[in-house]
Design a protein that fits this description.
The structure holds two protein chains of two kinds. Chain A contains 16 helices and no strands. Helices cover 65% and strands 0% of the residues of chain A. By secondary structure, chain B is mostly helical. Chain B has a domain at 24-63. Helix content of chain B is 60%, strand content 0%. The chains are: A mainly alpha, B mainly alpha. At the A-B interface, helix 9 and helix 11 of A face helix 1 of B.
Chain lengths: 469, 63
């Protein structure tokens, strides 16, 4: 009898260990797989921005996008990940309510010279979490990238991308996308899918840069009216936008916290990054309704395929903050409204002399703002974190509005100031001769369309300017 | 609209939790979303008819 009990005890221990190992492998694989899906966002942005560029600038736009992704990886490794864990309570770097933030925690969890920031058999989480966040960071840079095509200097763009992806959005995330974040703890700020933390910050950062960068030559007439500068390939742009939508699934799945691990909020169910319960089914309902409502809303007000696909993005961004909470038909309506409003916002910016080549400020900044506020309107009253009634902050329109102001500040202020500094040193914009000739012929050792009738635009460019080579 | 939780806490919530669950807003948003789809289709039909009529008018005008 005793031997039997001992045997069963041993077997139970083995089964428990095996079950734990299975959960750990599942959790690690879950975030691992979200990363190549998020890389699709960058495939999409690459295609989108190259398509939106004129032929003479297509490869230069591509290089810009590729380098944004590349530079953000080491930058986020060296600094960004640490910022996220150190600053949730503010600049004091004190330990937060749930004790998963502050200087000490960041040194243990995100120190680039520490043991967990490399291959470690005892750590199945840090690399995949860091990887998911790195892709979020690269996404912010890609959002800015489209707005500034065809006239920004590559060095300036890389510096701006690093500041945006390593610091600007990360402070916003520490404050509003972390359970210890002061926006969450004090104001109940809720932003499940990062409408404010990623999209608003990147959109308003881009606005700050665009003010100093100025419009493309030929965009505006002396009387202030705007000319449409068509990209060289709308099909490439459309496929790019649809690819971004595919990649968005990876982005949103990485916003959920897998259960059952030591670092999980729950033993048995998925939670948001704030520790509030949710299901992937809820996400699926609202993601699809968000995309659909956005496409249809944009179709109604624009009839333009570019804006329809941008509407898909606008739709999901409109719902992002409350994706874990909305009734799906409500998500559809929120998405429809956001996307239908896009052309109004775009015209408003254009009338003020802002040349946003791909509508990044409109889709991410303005619609991101709608998304943040919508959560305060339609999801007010939900507790922002786990805890007893009366002891936890709840989602409110006021809290969302305060959060939105912080997001605008986190984006616009560094974008504007840094680009102003670069402009003062003559390092922001390419020379006029280069812009007219085309950036490909000036600095790219390759030809996009060598067999096209006009030599990929190079012959026309050669006729109008002397090449720098 | 708003929270459908009985109190401002996630403790002991096990089933439906989406915004407005069980309230008057559920059917309202359901019909709004269906209505928006219908509106989009109606406007789309009108746009398409107008576009075809314009090209036929231009074509007949040239001949």
């Amino acid at each position: 009898m005793e031997a039997e009990i001992a045997r069963l005890t041993e077997e139970l221990a083995a089964l428990t260990a095996a079950s734990g190992a299975t959960n750990t492998m599942f959790a690690e694989t879950y975030y691992y797989l979200s990363i190549p899906l998020m890389v699709l966002i960058h495939v999409g942005f690459l295609s989108y921005e190259m398509g939106a560029s004129r032929q003479k600038n297509v490869l230069a736009s591509g290089i810009k996008n590729i380098l944004a992704f590349a530079f953000l990886v080491p930058a986020f490794y060296y600094a960004g990940w640490f910022v996220y864990w150190a600053f949730p309570t503010g600049f004091s770097m004190s330990t937060g309510f749930f004790e998963i933030s502050g200087w000490d925690y960041a040194v243990a969890a995100a120190n680039p010279a520490g043991e967990v920031m490399g291959p470690n058999l005892a750590d199945n989480a840090t690399g995949v979490f860091w990887g998911a966040f790195t892709l979020f960071a690269a996404t912010t840079a890609s959002i800015m990238s489209g707005a500034v095509i065809e006239r920004i200097r590559l060095f300036a763009f890389i510096v701006l991308a690093i500041v945006l992806g390593t610091f600007a959005w990360v402070f916003a995330a520490a404050w509003g996308w972390h359970a210890d974040g002061w926006l969450v703890q004090r104001f109940g700020y809720h932003d499940f899918g990062a409408a404010g933390v990623v999209h608003m910050v990147a959109g308003f950062f881009a606005l700050g840069v665009l003010i100093n960068l100025g419009p493309r030559i030929g965009k505006f007439n002396p009387d202030g009216s705007a000319n449409h500068i068509a990209g060289h390939s709308m099909p490439m742009t459309l496929v790019g936008l649809m690819t971004i939508i595919a990649g968005f699934w990876g982005f949103l799945m990485a916003c959920a916290i897998v259960p059952g691990e030591a670092w999980s909020w729950s033993a048995t169910e998925f939670t948001s990054i704030y520790g509030t319960p949710m299901t992937l089914s809820a996400l699926t309902f609202n993601i699809l309704m968000g995309f659909a409502g956005g496409i249809i809303g944009a179709w109604v007000t624009t009839r333009d395929p570019f804006w329809m696909m941008s509407g898909a993005l606008a739709g999901i961004i409109s719902c992002a903050a409350g994706l874990d909470l909305y009734w799906p038909p409500l998500a559809f309506a929120i998405a429809f409204a956001g996307a239908a409003f896009m052309p109004v916002a775009a015209r408003f910016l254009e009338k003020r002399g802002i040349d946003d080549a791909v509508g990044a400020v409109t889709v991410h900044g303005v619609i991101g703002l709608w998304g943040v506020l919508a959560a305060g309107i339609f999801a007010a009253g939900y507790p922002a974190i786990q805890g007893d009634a009366g002891s936890v902050p709840v989602i409110s329109l006021t809290g969302q509005a305060i959060g939105a102001l912080v997001m605008i500040g986190c984006g616009f202020v560094p974008g504007y100031l840094l680009s102003l500094l670069l402009r003062m040193f003559g390092m922001l914009r390419v020379p006029e001769a280069a812009e007219i000739a085309g950036l490909d012929i000036v600095k790219v050792p390759a030809v996009a369309y060598p067999e096209s009738l006009n030599g990929g635009g190079r012959q026309a460019s050669l006729d109008t300017a002397s090449p720098a080579r | 609209m708003g929270s459908s939780l009985p109190e401002a806490s996630w403790n002991a919530i096990e089933g439906v939790y989406y915004t407005g669950a069980g309230g008057a807003w559920e059917p309202i948003w359901l019909f709004v979303s269906i209505g928006l789809c219908g509106l989009a289709l109606v406007l789309g039909i009108a746009h398409e008819r107008h576009a075809y009529k314009r090209i036929e008018t231009e074509r007949h005008g040239r001949t």
